[in-house]
Design brief:
The protein is α+β, with helices and mostly antiparallel strands. 48% of the residues lie in helices and 21% in strands. Helix 1 packs across helix 3 and helix 6 crosses helix 8.
């Protein structure tokens, strides 16, 4: 089920991105040859106007073929260099090429896919607020009281006592009990909990096994995790971070405003995180430990699905933001790389040779594929 949901999310995110390119290209009078749902081989298609709409076998996104986006050397013809004897049809065709449009129009078409992903994230966050988006106590919107407040696990250290006991991010802690030697019930017990109480409870137990009662996802059944704290720097811990989280359903316009604020906050933090990752990679300090590829995302999708529809919406919004920011990187084959080429052309006052541009983009695409293979291999290695 997780794989199916992941494919649906990927399909939606990529189609929204490509629709941004498609919509703006049409608005500027640029010829769009094909809008593909999925990737070839082609199953069937139909034509409306001059654009072919194809439905393909591999449901991993989509694509748009814009006339003049990838210009071959032989087709590299500027309107101003067309001979007067050329047919009006050829002149009109050249005018409708992306390559012959003003630089600002080309930039908008290239940026439109990125903007579409940012816009989608805002819409999803806003729907989440209207439905009841999980919010930390103290961060709630003024005038709207949080409901269903629980102590929630927000992070777990790998191979920690908590992870070994089966606890997961998103689990809601209901109660905690320490057991005396022999495991007979009757030790210290508490149901009034917050992060500080849990921490003090674990430390005071001095390594005794504890039972943590928790609920997971939409299931209201209380599960028990038996956790044996480990000593770390003279203090007993179980390797989790917690926060008190509840939900508040907001009215339409308030949800839109809060969704926009959250969207901007996540865009800034994602951009800073990506910049830090790239900087550390260049300095030789980088690690794939904090990078998740398709395999890892499938697992996260499964967890989000278990926790409920709103969690899945929020996760999809985060992936949409990540997709947009990655595409902004000025690297060949990405939208950011094409925008960078436009900037160079604007500065130098002439076009980059199509042969050079296509070669650089092909090399960049190959590097991206290689990077994805490495990240996927690392994801698989984490499973063992």
């Amino acid at each position: 089920m997780s794989i199916i949901i992941f494919i649906i999310i990927l399909l939606v995110l990529v189609l929204v991105h490509e629709f941004g390119h498609f919509f703006t290209a049409k608005k500027f009078g640029i010829r769009v040859d094909e809008f593909g749902f999925g990737f070839p081989p082609k199953l069937f298609s139909f034509k409306k106007g001059e654009t072919e709409y194809s439905f393909n076998l591999l449901p991993l996104g989509g694509f748009v073929k814009i006339f003049g986006e990838n210009v071959d050397e032989a087709d590299f013809v500027e309107v101003g260099f067309l001979d007067k004897k050329e047919t009006s049809e050829k002149i009109e065709l050249a005018k409708r090429s992306l390559a012959n449009k003003p630089k600002w129009q080309q930039a908008i078409v290239l940026f439109a896919g990125i903007f579409a992903n940012f816009l989608l994230a805002w819409i999803l966050f806003s729907i989440g607020f209207m439905s009841g988006l999980p919010t930390s106590v103290g961060s709630e919107v003024a005038g709207y009281k949080l409901q269903d407040v629980h102590l929630v696990i927000v992070s777990i250290l790998p191979k920690s006592p908590a992870e070994n006991a089966g606890l997961k991010i998103g689990d809601k802690i209901i109660n905690i009990q320490s057991l005396p030697a022999g495991g007979v019930s009757g030790g210290n017990f508490t149901t009034y909990i917050n992060p500080e109480i849990i921490k003090d409870f674990i430390v005071s137990g001095k390594g005794k096994e504890i039972d943590i009662g928790y609920i997971r996802g939409k299931n209201s059944e209380v599960n028990i995790a038996k956790v044996s704290p480990k000593e770390n720097n003279g203090q007993f811990t179980i390797g989790i971070s917690m926060d008190e989280i509840g939900t508040a359903k907001l009215p339409f316009f308030t949800a839109l405003w809060e969704g926009m604020k959250l969207n901007w906050f996540m865009i800034k933090n994602t951009a800073v995180g990506l910049y830090t990752l790239i900087k550390e990679g260049i300095q030789g300090k980088g690690s794939f430990a904090s990078v998740t590829g398709p395999v890892g995302i499938v697992g996260i999708v499964g967890d989000a699905y278990q926790f409920g529809f709103v969690y899945l919406l929020s996760f999809t919004a985060l992936i949409s933001i990540n997709l947009a920011i990655i595409n902004l990187i000025p690297f060949p084959a990405l939208d950011g790389g094409r925008l960078f080429f436009l900037l160079i052309e604007k500065i130098k006052g002439s076009r980059i040779s199509p042969k050079i541009a296509n070669t650089v983009n092909m090399i960049g695409f190959g590097i991206l594929i290689l990077l994805m293979v490495v990240i996927t291999f690392h994801d698989v290695a984490k499973l063992f």
